Amino acid sequence: MTLHATLLVFVLAATGRSAAAAPPETGWWPADLPPRVATPLDETEDQRRARMAWWREARFGMFIHWGLYAIPGGYWEGRRTGGAEWILNSVKIHPDDYMPLRFQFDPVDFDPTEWAMIAKNAGMRYLVVTSKHHDGFCLWPSEFTEFDVDGTPFERDVIGELFDACRAEGVVPCLYHSIMDWTHPDYLPRRAWDDRPGGDHERYVRHMHRQLEELIDRYGPGVLWFDGEWEGTWTHADGQRTYDLVRGIDPRIIVNNRVDTGRTGMAGLTREGGYRGDFGTPEQEIPATGLPRGVDWETCMTMNRSWGYQSFDVAYKTTSDLVRKLVDIASKGGNFLLNVGPDERGRFPAEARKRLAGGGRWMAMNAESIHGTNGSPFADLPWGRCTRSSLPGGGERLYLHVFDPPANNAIRLPGLLTEPAHRAAYLLSDPGRGGMAVERDGADLVVSLPDGTPLDPIDTVLVLDLVAPALVVEGPSIAIESGIFVDPFAVAIGSPDPSVEVRSTTDGSDPTFDDGFDSDRIDVDRTMTVRTRCFFEGVPVGGVVERRYEKVDPIAAVQPFAIRDGIAWRTFLGAFESVSALADADVESEGVASRVDLSMQPRDENFGVTFTGFVEIPSTGVWGFSLDSDDGSTLRIHDSLVVDNDGLHSALEKSGAIALEAGLHPIRIDYFEATGQDDLILKWSRPGSDTFVRIPVERFKR
Ligand code: FHN
Questions:
Q1: Which atom of ligand 1 is nearest to the CA of 133?
Q2: Which of 64, 227, 306, 335 to mutate to test the pocket of ligand 1 (most atoms within 8 A of CB)?
């Protein structure tokens, strides 16, 4: 250890702080994980791949929500209030009444080694612990606040000790850090019942940045998991500079997308537009299949219903359900961050320990089918899931996760054209048990489960090696989605592989190998339904893919008497749940804007805005429009509802299309915001393009 590090360790030891001085990178990093790699902010795709490699390989981590809120544990002043880690906000507790909780923080049973070992034995390769949650209490001795562990009877450096223990167990230690801070004197917005004066956003950001530097320099987290980015004071610019600061301090670090403001609500993925963040963060939900390949994402989830400890929250998911969620997520190429909320004494709840132990037993035999795997090549498997990993020599290993064995014990792999490397598959948990026959049935491969195969009621994993990466035929590719058109066009039909032929019809009938035509392009000059299918050696493979194209006449432009630049707006106040409610609301204010945005919003929450005017269409054709909004919004052109994105929801983008003549067309946008983050972005796409861009200001008229 260098002299500097020795001195630092000495200083930390003298102050009762953990010896988790700037951690030595060598000697503790798990040998079976790719190394941490430092890359520049303008990293290449290869550099990004290297930096993300260990995290992608890990697939499974432990989330820990722990802090002062474990002391009340959902009770306040003798009453069961719920709220868990949100209790200050849920019960409207004044910070002056909440912050003294620190004098009760004395988790005498806190055993960081036990926590780290439980995570390791559960098959979790990384651990994300709350350094600071929304209540502002810091689980490490910070130079920049008194509201930290130093101010408690406990006084130990929780983060430092836990990081040391994780490293000793080969679990990568990481930090959750809340942007929102209900007790810091500079954080804005204040809670409505918090009458403390002052507050300064810029000063708060500087404070937060100083603490981030302190945390990274002292503990070296693998991931910084930001949260609480949704209040209006935190901006895209704040997200950008915070991400750049963090990656500048430690160029190896991985940062989630909640550092910035581009997260699409609880669905968690990052919208277009250069928002920072290395991975999406779906919360309490698992994305459906079909996420774009190469998108990094991690679902975070509670075992019961609470992130922070609540003794009465006993609604735990079963071990089987949790394991199958892990498998489902891995089969879609994502990571699973599973939460534990320790109690006020520093103990994991017994029900959580049981599930972690149960999941650990499954992982002890099947971890190879999770760690280091990639998503399934199949869209849907009725009997379970599939994960896969590369084999030396160019082959590929499929892990067939059998949740519900078919009655005939035939594990069918639809459309899998790649040949098996051996004529047998085997149980991952018992390779020596002898092979399971693998036969080709047309374009499918079928693995036969022998009677008496010992099945795991949670998930039986079979291994099937292929001679090359799996080629699976789901169906042909059709270049243009269904829709309306004005002028005739040609649509390209693609086969997934030269060995697979395509047959199509345009009269709505099912294509067969003999009577469908095999053109790789279809001229669409009238309203028609294109139905197409793949055939392998004359046998149908995958399903029929259908697209409907409707020929329409463009709507004529209007000739208003007088035209001026800009678009008119009116605002409304109220707790709306749909844009239709605006019709009954009184106008609060009105004016003219240069474009559709929220520059005129009367307040942060519970308001509506209506825009009316004209949009100038440059050329005749089918124009796409999209609304990206939180909460609901609609777009009408003439009297047609072109985009319906109404309802209470987090950031969500929806689109529609309409055929228009070049010229002016009347538009109306209705929007409402209930509570939380707000957003309204109107875009359009030109005929023949599927790229949506903001409408140029000069195109708005009134
Ligand atoms: O408000 C937090 C909540 O307390 C918890 O930390 C979750 C975990 O991702 N995130 C926020 C809710 O979306």
A1: 6
A2: 227
Report which secondary-structure segment, H or E, holds 358.
helix 350-366
Question: Can you say how many angstroms the Cα of residue 255 is from the centroid of all Cα atoms in its chain?
Answer: 13
DSSP-based helix, strand, coil % in the chain, nearest 5: 25, 30, 45
Atom of ligand 1 nearest to the CA of 266: 13
Residues lining ligand 1, Cβ inside 6 A? 85-86, 227, 283, 300, 307
> Residue with structure tokens 């409610």?
581
Take residue 383 and report the two structure tokens written for it.
């009997």
Where residue 513 falls among pLDDT bands split at 50, 70, 90?
A: very high
What domains are defined for the chain? Answer: 44-369 (3.20.20.80), 384-466 (2.60.40), 477-551 (2.60.40), 567-701 (2.60.120.1560)
Q: Which tokens is 62 given?
A: 């432990």
**283 CA distance to ligand 1 centroid (A)?**
8
What is each CA distance from 61 to 281, 287, 326, 337, 426, in whole angstroms? 13, 18, 10, 5, 28
pTM exceeds 0.85 for this model: no
Other beta carbons within 10 angstroms of residue 636's beta carbon come to: 17
List, in order, residues 6 or more apart from 351 with CB less than 8 Å away. 303, 304, 314, 316
- pLDDT at residue 24 greater than cutoff 70: no
Residue among 172, 173, 108, 97 nearest 135 (CA): 97
The atom of ligand 1 lying closest to the CA of 283 is: 9
CA distance 385 to 338: 20
* Residue written as token pair 């301090």: 249
The residues with which 129 forms a beta bridge, in sequence order, are: 64, 175
**What pairs with residue 337 in β-bridges?**
61, 300
pLDDT at 643 exceeding the cut of 80: yes
